[in-house]
């Protein structure tokens, strides 16, 4: 069985794109592997969140993933900040992480371009902390999107370097988790590209959006002036709405609007209204579940405590061996 580690940013607010992407993958993954899921709250300190926001965001993210089906009986769910062993490994790995390779990291270069007033050492060593998250459990698989591939590559570099320096084979090489089947990419509402949080307000439908918010967002979704030639090809903004319709609505509904499009009698307002109602039907129970979990402090506490205990066992055992390997030995 593979040991899988995945860090979740505590930025809250899963949208439909996340739901049909990362979340679906996590649910499948937890059935087949020994999974460690943690909220990357140490990492989030690079942007100096205020303590109340930090705590609230961590809780919201936990509530969302738990409501979506992340299961603490199948997986180990914990907070990064509850596993101090990670910090110790981070320190060890920092000794063998070179300034040059950290400077070349794309995400670092991007961050310093966007936030030149906050180039802190934590940001600089972000990939080292991420490697520590992974290696602390001697994980061999990590689910990563495109934006995290380089970080994972660096984790491999640090693992291999450690092994070489200490002539050991303690750390496995963490590889990208391969999901096999390709998931549907959920498009956004702004007419181009996929659904994303950073693409501007209104582009993403969040799982905790109220029905009114969902209706409002759908009404503002980008369309064109409508087809003029029967069976003409759909421009991207329209194809995007049909892709959403395919995921959220019944076959009959899809067929109804396809036909209307093809004979040029479609009214986008009708399509948007229908799509909004179908999305609301789909997300309503999830939204209620998120609220229930969020308000159930006892449940969250139980889940995090159980996860922390399991994560500690693995981390303590591994860090003990790392200390031995490095030469920190008891008299
Ligand atoms: N860097 C990841 C992100 O921004 C989060 C993360 C931190 C992570 N530590 C990790 C992911 C370890 C996988 C494994 O999404």
What does this structure look like?
- With 331 residues, the protein is mainly alpha-helical.
- It folds into two domains: 3-177 and 296-326, 3-Layer(aba) Sandwich (Rossmann fold); 197-291, Tyrosyl-Transfer RNA Synthetase, CATH 1.10.240.
- It is built from 13 helices and five strands.
- It has helices at 16-32, 51-68, 85-94, 99-103, 106-114, 121-124, 126-135, 149-165, 211-219, 236-248, 251-262, 268-295, 297-326; strands at 3-8, 34-39, 76-79, 141-142, 175-176.
- A three-stranded parallel β-sheet has the order 1-2-3, with helices on both faces.
- Strand 2 (34-39), helix 2 (51-68) and strand 3 (76-79) form a beta-alpha-beta unit.
- The longest helix has 30 residues, at 297-326.
- It is elongated and about 85 Å long.
- The protein binds tryptophan.
